[in-house]
């Protein structure tokens, strides 16, 4: 394709050229922003497997907020994220001070920007040490409110997006939740959207309040990223190509879309490879097959390997037992292959469903949630068998 820019983004977390299959979630969030404080979707939790589009959704929600004049703070839930958020909010207050030519922020009744606004932040280190994230957000939200009133602006607020949410950051998640709840009760223009993989989030949603008192997560708007319908997958493959002057053969497009399995990242992988190999701005069936084969290899490396690494040995053995079947697996067959009781096997069935590695497929049956995981597990089994017999 020469020097033409590839319209697909075959990198985990990168924003695709066309967001398909998630329009309703975006519309619901935008309506919540427009409906005022207290709207349920303003505090949302996005859950999905790797490559299901969690980070892309966070970015799309951030864009919706920015288009409405909201301030957006994006963070990753690694250690210290609440302190990093506080520092960024304080820097925003300092930027506002400089931009509007106001006085130093103080905690002792000095007017800010001559707007009649009093803040609690101070440059004195002794006072600053007691100034926490709740103080900073309260000041910034109050400033946003006063600016809107004084300068006849549309009301705006603050959106915090938090990626890679994990139960290992329990204490900081609890802190952010408590702050969010206080601000919501005060009718502040605040929104918080978090995202993470199921195995990292499920413990935070546990019903045992004594061990995991993150009640605000259980009350949040839960967005579970489902597979994208086939027709929208086809649109996700076709439209970016059309805009680049490339045409799919009808059969090639249907084949490529089917191989995506409704999985957003696979759309980008296959689309990217098809774009690279398109001959005379035309994607034939042969080129589609080549693109799919290359995309599968990348999917194994980027998604399947790390997904399996998160699981226990028994979890992986359960999946290996499923890989013997060409379609949905019976729990009774899996139990026999594992040499375990149905009750024992069902415990791991539930774990893997919670981790979104498998899905129910009718009474007493399960199937793989990730596309082409069955093939990858069979390749691993074959490699182990060959190495053993070498």
From TrEMBL:
Coiled coil start-end: none
Protein name in UniProt: Type II secretory pathway predicted ATPase ExeA
Pfam family name, one: AAA_16
SUPFAM superfamilies linked: P-loop containing nucleoside triphosphate hydrolases
Protein origin, superkingdom: Bacteria
All residue ranges annotated as the Orc1-like AAA ATPase domain in the record: 19-182
InterPro entries: AAA_16, ExeA_AAA_ATPase_DNA-bind, P-loop_NTPase
């Amino acid at each position: 394709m020469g020097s033409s820019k590839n319209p697909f983004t075959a990198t985990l977390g990168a924003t695709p050229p066309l967001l398909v299959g998630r329009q309703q979630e975006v519309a619901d969030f935008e309506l919540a922003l427009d409906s005022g404080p207290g709207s349920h979707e303003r505090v949302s939790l996005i859950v999905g497997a790797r490559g299901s589009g969690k980070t892309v959704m966070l970015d799309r929600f951030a864009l919706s907020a920015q288009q409405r004049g909201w301030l957006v703070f994006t963070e990753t839930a690694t250690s210290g994220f609440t302190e990093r958020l506080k520092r960024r909010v304080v820097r925003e207050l300092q930027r506002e001070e400089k931009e509007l030519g106001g006085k130093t922020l103080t905690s002792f009744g000095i007017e800010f920007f001559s707007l009649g606004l009093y803040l609690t932040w101070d440059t004195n280190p002794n006072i600053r040490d007691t100034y926490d994230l709740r103080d900073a957000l309260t000041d910034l939200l109050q400033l946003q409110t006063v600016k809107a009133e004084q300068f006849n602006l549309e009301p705006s607020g603050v959106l915090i997006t938090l990626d890679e949410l994990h139960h290992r950051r329990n204490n900081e998640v609890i802190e952010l939740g408590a702050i969010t709840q206080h601000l919501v009760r005060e009718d502040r223009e605040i929104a918080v959207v978090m995202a993470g993989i199921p195995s990292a989030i499920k413990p935070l949603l546990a019903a045992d309040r004594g061990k995991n008192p993150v009640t605000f997560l259980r009350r949040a708007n839960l967005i579970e990223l489902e597979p994208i319908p086939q027709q929208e997958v086809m649109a996700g493959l076709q439209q970016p190509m059309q805009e680049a002057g490339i045409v799919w053969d009808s059969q090639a497009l249907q084949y490529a879309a089917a191989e995506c399995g409704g999985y957003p990242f696979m759309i980008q992988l296959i689309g990217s490879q098809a774009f690279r190999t398109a001959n005379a701005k035309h994607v034939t069936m042969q080129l589609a097959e080549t693109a799919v084969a290359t995309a599968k290899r990348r999917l194994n490396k980027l998604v399947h390997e790390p997904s399996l690494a998160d699981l226990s040995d028994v979890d992986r053995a359960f999946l290996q037992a499923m890989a013997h079947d060409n379609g949905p697996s019976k729990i009774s067959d899996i139990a026999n292959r594992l040499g375990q009781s149905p009750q024992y096997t069902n415990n791991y069935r539930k774990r893997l469903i919670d981790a979104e590695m498998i899905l129910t497929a009718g009474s007493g049956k399960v199937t793989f949630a990730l596309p082409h995981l069955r093939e990858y597990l069979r390749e691993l089994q074959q490699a182990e068998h060959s190495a053993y017999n070498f």
